[in-house]
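Many introductory courses stop at the sequence. We go one step further.
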Amino acid sequence: MDDRLALSIVIPVYNEEESVQPLYRSAQKACDPLGRTYEVIFVDDGSRDGTFGILEKIHRQDGRVKVVRLRKNFGQTAAMTAGFSYAKGDVIISMDGDLQNDPADIPRLISKLEEGFDVVCGWRKRRQDKFWSRRVPSIVANCLIGRITGVHIHDNGCSLKAYQASVIKHVALYGDMHRFIPAMSTLAGARIAEITVNHHPRQFGKSKYGIGRVWRVALDIVTVKMLTGFASRPALWFGLLSLPWTVLGVFALAVAGLMYAYDSLEAWTVMSTVAFLLLFLGSDLLAMGLMGELFVRTGEHPSKSRPRPTVTVLEVE
């Protein structure tokens, strides 16, 4: 008989000692009626409160609960990646550990996934967060991500998602890339769907995210665009970046020539220096693109490294 699990639920937690027990009960209540084998993987992302102790007790009571503990707080993306690595289910569900995501939505996510999709994203249509500091930046970021990557998802930041394990385990995540899983999964040819899900007000503690992360998201959008649009043709990406600088350099060089013709040597010195710097920048970007092409063609892709920052894994042998 096939001893593989049907479902894995991956839940990163960080200082959520009040939330993990009711969250476990909610997940159990949602999954037991499914009639499928499942596991719940809590990834303790370096909590400094009593979260891990509570998770140990839950694990001893229910062998379906696995606990992965990270040495320090590596961030949500690293925690999710660690959970995906240890997951044994054919279908993987990810969700937050602060009780704002509702495990009752899990059956609906699975049902949508079984329609032939590889990734099903949750959409917090009635999001219960602060309007100006959380919802407005999220709306702007989702619009930008959709326009730049071509993957139009209403709520990229919602952690409640369902994946085919064969797809998500081949998606390389790092930094803060958990927001861009739909876009990154297109590199593996994933078929993506979206359904509305419940979202509850935060009951305990405080949010780990704030307006200060906007600049990280902006930089990650550029990275994701490069990976999804130009991963196999880096020369095209860097060539596009070099084009405006090269054009400006040629224009500055022409202006410097006019200044030299009219014996304005001081202005010619300044303008010719500007022209040289602009042309040098354009050629340098183009050279980086050509080097990238060589790496791609010779198979020097960075390998997908699986994080091993664990000190404890509680799992039934």
